[in-house]
Amino acid sequence: MGREVSESCIDSVMIEMVSSYCDRFYQNKPELAARRIESIGYQVGHQLSERYTMERPRFTDHLDAIKFICKDFWSEVFKKQIDNLKTNHRGTFVLQDNRFRWLSHISIEPSPDGPGLPSDAAGDLLENKTAQATQAASMHLYFPCGIIRGALTNLGIPCAVSADISNLPACSFVVRIKA
């Protein structure tokens, strides 16, 4: 039987890591917090891909490596496969996860707090809460972006990875292969 870590422990570590880097270490510098969180993810992804590919031959092309990330790697890390993979066949891949586990605890309130607010103020408050939730979610995505980038770099594919949040907890990871 392989070693496993409780999902609630991973969730707690993720929340605390993002909170620590955003609210304490780099409180006024979110771009530095994001870079640090992504670099931790990079190290984790690099080590995990080393572990998961130990018994496999090297991949022959980019598409095989991306398929490995979508099927086997994602299954090991998130206990499910990627829901959709798209490519333009020119070095850009979009990995769609319709229920990304690490975003499932982030939500947007459907209505603003405070009864009796004028409709303009209520709309502004809701818009502000939506922006805050989107920013919080994006900070939580630097770690998995780093994991993907680290795993692919270890497989010999230098790339840049970004995330796009369309509808929480759905998420798309955009992988751009560097030439």
* Beta-strand content estimate: 5-15%
Categorize the overall geometry: globular
Describe the strand arrangement of the main beta sheet, using strand numbers. Answer: 1-2-4-3
Low-pLDDT runs of 5+ residues are: none
Largest sheet: 4 strands, antiparallel
Question: What level of helicity do the residues show?
Answer: 40-55%
Overview of this protein structure:
With 179 residues, the protein is α+β, with helices and mostly antiparallel strands. The protein contains four helices and four strands, in the order H-H-H-E-E-H-E-E. It has helices at residues 7-25, 30-52, 62-78, 119-154, and strands spanning 84-87, 92-97, 159-164, 171-177. Strands 1-2-4-3 form a four-stranded antiparallel sheet, with helices on one face. Strand 3 and strand 4 (171-177) form a beta hairpin. Helix 1 packs antiparallel against helix 2. The longest helix is centred in the C-terminal third of the chain and has 36 residues, at 119-154. The protein is globular and about 50 Å long.
